[in-house]
Each structure stands twice: as C-alpha cells, then as structure tokens.
Amino acid sequence: MQPRPSRLRIVRTRSRRLRLAAARLMAASDPWLRLGIGRAGCLETIKTPYRELHVALRGSALEGLVLITMYGTFRGYIQALCVAPGARGGGLGGLLMRRAEERIFRDSPNVFLCVSSFNKGARRFYRRLGYRQAGLLKDLLVKGSDELLLRKTQGPLLP
Ligand SMILES: CC(C)(COP(=O)(O)OP(=O)(O)OC[C@H]1O[C@@H](n2cnc3c(N)ncnc32)[C@H](O)[C@@H]1OP(=O)(O)O)[C@@H](O)C(=O)NCCC(=O)NCCS
C-alpha cells in the first residue's frame, strides 16, 4: 500500500532550521539567483526585525514561503514569495498570497510588494490576484532591471 501523502499546512515560524531552508529555497531560484543574492543575503532578509516568515510544509519539507514586513508606512509589504520548483503551477503561490493578505488586512488596508521587470510569470500572477502598479523604481537593485511597486488596497490609511 502507498503511504498517504502528508497534508499541506501553512504556519508562521521563527525556527532556525526553517529560516535556513527558506533562504536556501530563495537563493536557488530566480529572481534572487539572477540578481546575485545568495543564501547569506536571503537569510539576512529573513532575519530582519519586524518580518514574519510563513511557510508551507508538507510533513517536515518546505514547499513554499511568504515573508511579510509589518512595520512603517509600507507595513503590509510582502518581501518575498517563493514556491519550490516542483510544487509550482498547482495553486500554492495563490494560497500563500491569500494567507499573507488575511494577515496584513487584519492590521492595515494595503498590501505592497515589488516584482522585477524581468519576472513576467510573477507579474501575470500578481495581476490576476488583483495587484496594480503603484510605482516604478528604476534600476533599484541592479542596472537595467526595474522594480515595479504593486499594491492591493481596501481603502485609505486614515478614517
Ligand atoms: C510566482 C510563484 C510564487 C507562483 O507560485 P505558484 O504556486 O506557481 O502559483 P499558482 O500555481 O498559484 O499560479 C500559477 C501562476 O504563477 C505564475 N508563475 C510564475 N512563475 C511560474 C513558474 N515557474 N511555474 C509555474 N507558474 C509560474 C504563472 O502566472 C502561473 O499562471 P499561468 O497559468 O498564467 O502561467 C512561483 O512561480 C515562484 O516561486 N516563482 C519564483 C519566485 C518568484 O518569482 N517569486 C515572486 C517574486 S516577486
């Protein structure tokens, strides 16, 4: 008899093992690969204060992550979203975004994120989820590649 596949769960974590696994997953994938941001850089990004790491786990295996910043004017900023290559195209990215939005909209009416101009698949993905361009940050990370600032909003910050 085949073993039953483990159920997928999404949890917020501060575990050292999962932070490392998340950094490894990001560093092995575009856009971080193409931007030259290695495992140490990704781990620094994850460990920065006021960031919340939410991971998708099947058993103990990491299948995806979303990293959120809940601080400052741009609180509700999605710093990183990544699904393991073998799990892409099956809806997990959408599920992680829904989890991130639920978390952010509890405390703030805006979800912000940046996507690299060259990341056409992700741009299509965010557009379908209702994200719209709110700014253009030219050559922000490397020369020749822009970051598009996207936003989904429920209304203004002040009543
Ligand atoms: C973008 C990403 C998170 C989407 O996760 P996912 O689980 O594949 O997403 P879903 O299954 O919910 O939706 C699939 C959609 O994602 C987009 N997508 C982007 N890159 C993709 C990839 N490598 N494989 C499959 N779909 C991809 C496509 O728009 C696809 O829809 P399509 O049918 O129109 O092509 C995932 O592809 C990923 O981790 N990419 C690498 C990291 C990245 O670019 N993160 C965003 C940085 S801002």
Helices, strands, pairings?
Layout: E1 8-13, H1 16-27, H2 32-35, H3 39-47, E2 51-58, E3 61-69, E4 77-83, H4 92-105, E5 110-116, H5 120-128, E6 132-142, E7 145-153
Helix pairs in contact: 1-3
The structure holds coenzyme A (COA).
The total count of strands amounts to 7
User: What number of structural domains do the residues give?
Assistant: 1
- The percent of residues in helical segments reads 25-40%
CATH topology: Aminopeptidase
Uncertain residue segments:
none
CATH class: Alpha Beta
The H-and-E topology, N to C, reads as: EHHHEEEHEHEE
Shape: globular
As a whole number of angstroms, the C-alpha radius of gyration is 16 Å
- What portion of residues belong to β-strands? 35-45%
What ligands does this structure carry? coenzyme A
Write structural notes for this entry.
This protein is α+β, with helices and mostly antiparallel strands. The protein has a single domain (8-153), classed as Gcn5-related N-acetyltransferase (GNAT) (Aminopeptidase). Helices cover 30% and strands 36% of the residues. It contains five helices and seven strands, in the order E-H-H-H-E-E-E-H-E-H-E-E. Helix 1 crosses helix 3. The radius of gyration is 16 Å and the shape is globular. Residues 29-31, 81-83, 88-94, 115, 119, 121-122, 124-125 line the site of coenzyme A (COA).
